[in-house]
Write a sequence for this structure.
């Protein structure tokens, strides 16, 4: 059985939005194993979460395989989520265009931090991200929290 290589979003990058609301996807998150269709979703955490297109498709496929009826609460939740997603694909300069309403909703200014989260990445206002102190974590701290 053959399957596609799925890459992991790691590290943190600082980029700026241009006047048209475009931001560059880091070169480390492009190429083999990374999907070109992405889903941008506002988060109550105060950032935008960006998932590869297959993430939502896989959730939908599991519901279909489980035989979830049309009125299933999980299916309804997925339908609600779909209504607030912006689909984007990088342009020839590797930029994605984020709608102004999405940027405003989570308080993004010109400078942003793109933060790898393994299966997705987040876009934070750079100052908000710095105030969170997320770059100061160590392997030992995370291992202790996660029980590794």
């Amino acid at each position: 059985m053959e399957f596609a290589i799925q890459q992991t979003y790691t590290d943190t990058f600082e980029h700026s939005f241009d006047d048209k609301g475009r931001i560059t996807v880091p070169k480390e998150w492009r190429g083999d194993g990374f999907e070109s269709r992405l889903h941008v979703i506002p988060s109550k955490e105060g950032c935008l979460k960006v998932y590869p297109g297959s993430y939502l498709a896989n959730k939908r496929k599991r519901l279909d395989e489980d035989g979830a009826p049309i009125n299933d609460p999980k299916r309804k939740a997925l339908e609600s989520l779909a209504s607030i997603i912006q689909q984007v694909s990088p342009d020839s300069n590797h930029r994605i265009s984020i709608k102004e309403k999405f940027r405003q909703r989570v308080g993004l200014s010109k400078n942003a931090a793109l933060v790898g989260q393994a299966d997705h990445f987040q876009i934070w206002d750079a100052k908000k991200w710095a105030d969170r102190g997320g770059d100061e974590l160590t392997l030992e701290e995370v291992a202790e929290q996660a029980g590794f």
